[in-house]
Amino acid sequence: MQKDSKTRMIESAAALIAARGVNAASFSEVLEASGAPRGSIYHHFPEGKSQLAAAAVRWTSERVLAFQRAYDGSTPQGVLERFIGMWRNVVLRSHGASGCVVAGVAIDSVADDVELLQLVRSTFRDWLALLTAQLQATGLPPDRAASVALMTLAGMEGALILCRAEGGVAPLDQVASELLQLVQL
């Protein structure tokens, strides 16, 4: 099934933001990467780059949540391994050049863009809620599950930044090893 120009632009924007941040991802680069017609970006995103960045955050979040929800195992290690493995694949596919779209928007947005920052906040909260619920379902007490979920998300976001600086997956692997020790039974 062929994707429409709006979807291609959102996916292209997500890739550019993950690699460069919001400010370095220009409309012309999004158009070039997506192959969309020139006038379509203003048609689909009349409010500008902030609207496109929000669409990229939503698209990314839907993919992260769907991937993590597909976990059908029963161990805390499995929950973490699935989440960590997803980010490890991002680093490997990009040769250390890409990070998290949501973190990229959080870091590279102006503080007065309240709607965009609220979307970032709610996205991270959704990811934490899912990880917490999955960890609780494996038998971790609620407070412990919430703490491990937060440490996992923070650890991955920090590791992604370090992976970009190093140009490879080694920092993520080290953080992952430590995170998995948190849930050893």
Protein model, in words:
The relative contact order is 0.13. This protein is 74% helix and 0% strand. By secondary structure, the chain is an all-alpha fold. The protein starts with a helix and ends with a helix. It has a domain at 56-181: Tetracycline Repressor, domain 2, CATH 1.10.357.10. The model has no long low-confidence stretch (mean pLDDT 92). The chain has helices at residues 5-20, 27-34, 40-44, 49-69, 76-94, 101-107, 114-137, 142-166, 170-181. It is built from 9 helices and no strands. The protein is elongated, with a radius of gyration of 17 Å.
Q: How would you concisely characterize the structure shown here?
A:
With 185 residues, the chain is mostly helical.
Keywords:
185 residues; mainly alpha; Tetracycline Repressor, domain 2; 9 helices; 0% strand
CATH topology of one domain: Tetracycline Repressor, domain 2
Question: What class, by secondary structure content?
Answer: mainly alpha
What is the CATH architecture annotation of one domain? Orthogonal Bundle
In whole angstroms, how far apart are the ends? Answer: 45 Å
Poorly predicted runs: none
Number of strands: 0
Q: Number of helical segments?
A: 9
CATH class category of one domain: Mainly Alpha
Give the overall form.
Answer: elongated
What's the rounded overall pLDDT mean? 92
Q: What is the beta-strand fraction?
A: under 5%
Largest sheet: none
CATH superfamily of one domain: Tetracycline Repressor, domain 2
Rg over CA atoms: 17 Å
